[in-house]
């Protein structure tokens, strides 16, 4: 009799339990077992006092100068509520008062945050100490022109950031499906850039070189660096977290060099080798907020896509409590309906939101994607996923396509782990 293995995957704020024949499971991909930092506050201070290719923050900012801190929104976890009080206190200690500092959230083209959401992200004590702002990309009045990149991108950044004497970029570093890696320059560009600037940059995802884990020769990254250099940040603090949101490493200093060291660390921790692609991949985004909507779920799809063979099946667990995550994405799915038509449209008329329709559906040319979510099944089908109410139904659909004895790869940390096929 086949031995059954029991598995527990995160789903929203809860869990999904299921069993599989252990003999079918080729691999369960996890991030490397790296010890979390025991004293994050001490590690943050160590990083900002001994930064990478930079003077310490307290030597850069002088009394009488103003500071803009750029902070992640709620789609990207960075534990900002832990390091922001430390950064404010650090500058208070050298004569920079709270009134000369403010926080702006790197929304990019994401939705506006409520006051309560902003306060939660940085902690209520910080929210009461300094002014906090959204960067709303579609509100052109918030932005000012700073220059044009060599690729013809007119760069507009938020006026409040332009008016500050110093910019401190913060955030977390993870893989990014076309910019190579998150963190670093991305908090400024696209974080606090205008919608048009973001669109022109993201359109470069269609060019050769744009891809997961690639910085050198990546046109998206290079355009972002070129634009960021027009308003060069004074300092960077980026973190790398594990699935439990615990700090693994802190990287501080020059916004390019410190970020690059962080990217090398991410590769060593998040990369997961597999012998060969599998007929069936089962992936969880890692729970809330990584599966807050379909827009964010795409990160897990990209990683799972690397592990599945041509013609295989991917089962994605993502609650999507906030639905699709982009009206533009949904409109494109309703209007254009096929991966081929969507690709044709994005190449002729690039828009943010539409690019997500392309990013998702291009993956579906390789494999069938079954989605276990809280979405209405009709909406799920509009997005070209196959809906399933639970894991039992999803497995039934999958086995009908790939047979009863497929090779299976499990990805319980699907938004983090990047499968690397051994050569």
Number of strands: 20
How helical, in percent, are the residues?
25-40%
Structurally, the number of domains stands at 2
Largest sheet, in brief, is: 6 strands, parallel
Instruction: Give unreliable regions as ranges.
Output: none
List strands and helices in order, with pairings.
Elements: E1 4-11, E2 14-21, E3 25-28, H1 40-49, H2 57-60, E4 67-72, H3 80-92, E5 101-106, H4 115-122, H5 124-129, E6 131-134, E7 143-148, E8 154-158, H6 159-163, E9 166-172, E10 175-176, E11 180-181, H7 195-202, H8 219-229, E12 235-241, E13 247-253, H9 257-270, E14 271-274, E15 278-284, H10 294-307, E16 308-317, H11 327-336, H12 339-348, H13 354-361, E17 368-372, H14 377-382, E18 386-388, H15 391-402, E19 408-411, E20 418-421
Parallel strand pairs: 3-19, 4-5, 4-9, 5-6, 9-12, 14-20, 15-16, 15-19, 16-17, 17-18
Antiparallel strand pairs: 1-2, 7-8, 10-11, 12-13
Helix pairs in contact: 11-13, 12-13
Q: Could you walk me through the main structural features you see in this protein, from its secondary elements to its overall organization?
A:
- The chain has 423 residues and is α/β, with parallel strands linked by helices.
- The protein folds into two domains: 4-30 and 275-421, 2-enoyl-CoA Hydratase, Chain A, domain 1, CATH 3.90.226; 40-268, 3-Layer(aba) Sandwich (Rossmann fold).
- It is 33% helix and 26% strand.
- It has 15 helices and 20 strands.
- Strands 3-19-15-16-17-18 form a six-stranded parallel beta sheet, with helices on both faces. The protein has a six-stranded mixed beta sheet with strand order 6-5-4-9-12-13, sandwiched between helices.
- The chain is globular.
- The model has no long low-confidence stretch (mean pLDDT 94).
């Amino acid at each position: 009799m086949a031995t059954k293995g029991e598995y527990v995957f995160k789903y929203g704020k809860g869990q999904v339990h299921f069993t599989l024949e252990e003999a079918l499971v080729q691999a369960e991909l996890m991030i490397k077992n790296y010890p979390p930092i025991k004293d994050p506050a001490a590690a943050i201070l160590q990083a900002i006092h001994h930064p990478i290719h930079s003077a310490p923050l307290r030597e850069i900012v002088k009394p009488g100068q103003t500071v803009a801190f750029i902070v992640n929104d709620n789609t990207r976890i960075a534990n900002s509520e832990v390091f922001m009080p430390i950064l404010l206190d650090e500058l208070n200690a050298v004569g920079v008062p709270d009134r000369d500092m403010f926080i702006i959230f790197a929304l990019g083209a994401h939705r506006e945050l409520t006051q309560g959401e902003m306060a939660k992200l940085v902690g209520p004590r910080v929210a009461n100490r300094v002014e906090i702002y959204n960067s709303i990309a579609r509100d052109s009045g918030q932005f000012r022109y700073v220059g044009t990149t060599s690729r013809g991108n007119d760069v507009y950044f938020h006026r409040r950031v332009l008016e500050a004497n110093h910019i401190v970029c913060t955030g977390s570093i993870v893989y990014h499906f076309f910019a190579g890696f998150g963190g670093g320059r991305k908090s400024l560009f696209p974080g606090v850039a205008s919608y048009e600037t973001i669109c022109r940059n993201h359109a470069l995802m269609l060019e050769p070189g744009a891809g997961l884990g690639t910085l050198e020769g990546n046109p998206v990254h290079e355009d972002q660096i070129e634009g960021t250099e027009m308003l060069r940040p004074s300092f960077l603090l980026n973190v790398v977290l594990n699935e439990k949101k615990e700090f693994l490493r802190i990287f501080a200093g020059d916004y390019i060099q410190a970020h690059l060291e962080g990217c090398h660390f991410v590769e060593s921790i998040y990369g997961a080798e597999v012998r060969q692609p599998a007929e069936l991949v089962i992936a969880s985004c890692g729970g809330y907020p990584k599966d807050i909507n379909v827009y964010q779920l795409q990160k897990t799809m990209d990683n799972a896509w690397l592990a599945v063979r041509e013609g295989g099946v991917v089962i994605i667990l993502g609650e999507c409590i906030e639905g699709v995550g982009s009206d533009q994405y949904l409109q494109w799915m309703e209007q254009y309906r096929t991966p081929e038509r969507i690709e044709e449209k994005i190449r002729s008329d690039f828009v943010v939101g539409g690019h997500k329709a392309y990013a998702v559906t291009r993956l579906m040319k390789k494999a069938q994607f079954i989605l276990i979510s809280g979405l209405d099944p009709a909406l799920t089908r509009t997005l070209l996923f196959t809906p399933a109410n639970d894991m039992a139904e999803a497995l039934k659909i999958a086995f009908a396509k790939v047979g009863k004895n497929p090779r299976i790869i499990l990805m319980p940390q699907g938004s983090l782990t990047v499968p690397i096929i051994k050569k």
